[in-house]
Amino acid sequence: MRKLGSELAPLLFVSEIRFVAADDLPMSPAYGTDIVALHFTWRPVWDQVRAVLPKIEAALAPFGARPHFGKLFTMSPTHLAEVYPRLPELRTYAHQVDPEGKFMNDFLASRVFGLDY
Question: Is residue 55 part of a domain?
Answer without folding.
Answer: yes
